Amino acid sequence: MINVTLTPLHYIYLIFIIVIIIAMIMKKDISLICLLGIFVIGFIGTQSLYEAVMGIFNSLVYATKELMPTILIISVITAMSSILMDSGINNEIVAPFKGVIKNYWIAYWVIGITMMIMSWFFWPSPAVALIGAIFLPIAKKAGLPAIGVAISMNLFGHGIALSSDYIIQAAPKITADAAGIPVSSVISASIPLTITMGIVTTVSAFYFLRKDIKSGVISNEYNIDDENKNDKKMLISSQKLRRLLALFIVILFSIDIFIMFKANLQGGDATALIGGTAVFILSLISIITYKGEALEKITNDLVKGLQFGFKIFGIVIPVAAFFYLGDSAFNEVFGEILNKTSNGIVNDLGLALANIVPLNSTVSASTLTVVGAITGLDGSGFSGISLVGSIAKIFSTALGGGIATFTALGQISGIWVGGGTLVPWAVIPVAAICGVDPFELTKKNLKPVIIGLIVTTIVAILII
Q1: How many domains does the chain have?
Q2: What is the pLDDT of residues 243-272, one digit of tens each?
Q3: Which residue range(s) make up the domain with 163?
Q4: What is the pTM of this model?
């Protein structure tokens, strides 16, 4: 048993974590609470009002610096997605699937798997815009109702792809940083959990959907007027050129995957490769599409992408700033205030917990799942995963291992709930593109996601 001395800083940090969880349960925004927590911790630690005020800004700078690669990759991919839609190339990317989708069974799985793959590269929101309008009439014609399309896109994109995030690696970086472990550890630990969650959730959702279609609760009749509803003028009129460029883009990203596998690129290196490729594609397609106006158009698309990126992560920065203080960021922001024997606030709390609480893997894993789900109630999915990373570190310290599995479990729970499958205001993009009620979509997702989380938690317990 290792002795650890807890100071007022430790207790204040713990109190603010509890307050944050309560606020999330009440569906309140937690940014102000996190900023207040930074100020209070800074003031108690430094005994200086002006240093505490400075600490608020410096902690935000620290968090922004840590998250900037993630923000930029989302921004450039969104900018690239914009030009692909305007040029009509996105139509050609999904065109081969038109001849494959013959019935609603195939439609559900093809749309879902395609959404998952594209979401790994583009993230779900841009992917929704890229493929939703094209696949919807195809699916309806095959007998899959709009709500079925929405469920498939939601679960595979905002569920499986976003919670695993293997290509862009935004989610695992945030949780890994909070837990103090390499991104690769979180990714490796999440693979069996992601497979479990993905299979259980999508299969059960399809079972319930098929049951509703057979009983007549959901109609799958096709309206021919829907076929041309989402038609849009394409800036590249030549279909041959669009197809050539679509093939070129697919080849480029396939080469990226091969390089990442061959050179073992992960984390920032993998993000840089994808981001650089996206910028190259954006530039090339802009020159071909806009010609003489390419310089101005590229800038406009990049600005739109940056606006989207900072809008998504604006809520994450103050939250991450608070949770980064639980580890190495504290000394960088406020100086060497903690005792020399301290391993960081979170580590110290974990060691203290190990001394007084008889935790076990079942209690810890179940708690991480519940806390992760709670953090998702704000509808972001990302705003609270720093919290689950910190709690995973506490539990793993108490149990003497399992940090990567705990972190991955909390990440999956938080993003499945808040990233866009259970919170009504988070499912709006998919609901809007499919023309369904977001509350109805949430209701259809609820039972499969809960079943998936229960089974995934059991698997995590067995792994730990």
Answers
A1: 1
A2: 999 999 989 988 987 887 788 776 677 778
A3: 8-463
A4: 0.70
